[in-house]
Amino acid sequence: METSYASTMKKAEYRTTAFCWNVKKVLHDKGLSQNYLVEKLDVSCATMSQMLNGSRHLRFEEGLAIADALDMDLNSLLDTRNMAEFLANRNRKLEEKRRENELLMQLSREMDEQKKEPAEAGSVSVPPRGFEPRTR
């Protein structure tokens, strides 16, 4: 079976995401920061950030250098089996954000409705906090 270029690229992107996520996880597990890799690889903070967020394509040598700096095998950093955990975490965060946005929109609609409702006849209007009537 022949694989298409698009399919191959999708797999490469998936592996890049797995690599970035695995490197971040190893850094976290070892109590290290990205600055550790910045110093070990002698690159700028911006370059390392781009490497680890996937916005910059890694060269093979850079992947090896990162694996070496973390005392890891490159294949273990490319392992996609941990992606299920990554995707579950990302989906959970997206769902939390969606719920939060939904609640904010509902609150906004309720506040708009309260502003539109005229004061009922016979009801007492309460002045806003800090309001002081003028005296003549």
TrEMBL record:
Residues 23-77 form the HTH cro/C1-type domain. It comes from the Bacteria. Signal peptide: none annotated. Residues 109-119 have a biased composition (Basic and acidic residues). Residues 97-136 are annotated as: Disordered. SMART domains: HTH_XRE (SM00530). One of its GO terms (molecular function) is DNA binding. It holds the Pfam family HTH_26. This is Helix-turn-helix domain protein. It comes from Bifidobacterium bombi DSM 19703. The lineage of its organism: Bacteria, Bacillati, Actinomycetota, Actinomycetes, Bifidobacteriales.
